[in-house]
Design a protein that fits this description.
globular; Thiol Ester Dehydrase, Chain A; alpha+beta; 16% helix; three-stranded antiparallel β-sheet; homotetramer; 135 residues
Chain lengths: 135, 135, 135, 135
């Protein structure tokens, strides 16, 4: 995914606010689902994929108008969870490295979320990708 | 409503991003509803209050850590809409002046939103307030 | 400008939060400057373009994954201000109509912002565009 | 720090977007600095504290209007970094657990950020706090 820093994503330190990196990671996740012919949150869906854990190591800042790339790959799929790994780069410079784990849950009006198995119609569209060695 | 500028609300120009003022106005609106003993979006509500129009004139910038006040009053209530007026000030200095109009709509799963009358249990809790002359 | 609704731009009502429309308008403004070969906030710039006024009328909601278009045109340029008009559409449906006025200011460390004339190297790159009658 | 969920912090899943938790953690960090009589970003500061790493484990969702608490403590201070630990709770229920590492850097116009020692006027105002066993 290729993306440009928007002005509202910067902060008074003149760089992208760190909370925006988690949004970039999610944008890339949703783009990955779309490429697989899926939507992570189709209208009326009975299951959802809330975030269970997310982390980033920040190597270098991004500034307004910078064009950067978000690379996302699936590190692991279990029966009920998906774990992604993300590398944000600009012109081959490492900007940030992230991880995101999501769980499949059943949503029922007025009930707490409950973990459930990822439907095979979803899991079979994805595959675990090994790292390229440097990410 | 009294509030402090958060770091993530500033931008690379060193001031609060203008889009955040609309969020401040909405925070004050929701605080006004709470003071009236109401929630604007209680769980399972069949009606909602989408925004129909919103505007701001910006007089002076806010910076990180500034403490400011958001004054909101109802300018007009019609059968299906509420119009608010907002003044944001810091130490009696005018920072910004805003307006917000919301409409009452009925929400039905899978149907488009449809304007409906504001329930009297809501409208009777509010009253139109005249400006104090200087806002 | 063509754009897709991101998940973090939606709210608990299931639609794009109204404050995000002001961000879309600004994204389109910055894209317009880039097309003109300019940046609205180049590193080390001595002038800036703070927002003086911004408004939106909201006609229809946008939802997650919707693809929409942001059309922006310059309505008026004065010596020190630029006024834009924006139409957000999806498949020829009117979603929202906005206006934005920005002023040119001189920035000096530790001094208040002061309105100044738009440099001709900037103003000559832009032209006022008449509406197409329906926007 | 006590805080209420704002409507614009929720997403179409009806819960607080996970990226907002990083903002809550930062709000608590800045409140901690203020309590220590400091600002993390005073006007004209020559040093800054960019984020080096940040992570969250999410245990339970927060919804609109929920009132929650953010507990932050310093886990470790080294010559050039501070590491915080955060627990977000609501009525004694664990909502999320986070970690944040920031580095002290010297800022010079037009130069890359460079790690530097935390001034003793800052570090002596803080102390490392042991966990209470359950956070």
């Amino acid at each position: 995914m290729r993306r440009r820093v928007q002005f509202y994503e910067t902060d008074a330190a003149g760089i992208v606010h760190f909370s925006c990196f988690y949004r970039y990671m999610e944008e890339a996740e949703h783009a990955l689902w779309r490429e697989a012919g899926l939507s992570i949150a189709p209208p009326g869906a009975e299951i959802g994929f809330p975030r269970v854990a997310a982390s980033f190591d920040f190597h270098r800042p991004l500034q307004f108008d910078d064009e950067f790339e978000v690379h996302i790959r699936i590190e692991e799929i279990t029966a009920k969870t998906i774990r992604y790994s993300t590398a944000i780069t600009m012109n081959d410079t490492h900007i940030a490295t992230g991880r995101l784990t999501v769980a499949c849950v059943r949503k029922r009006q007025g009930e707490p979320l409950k973990a459930t198995e990822i439907p095979s119609t979803i899991s079979e569209r994805f595959e675990v990708v090994e790292p390229e060695g440097h990410s």
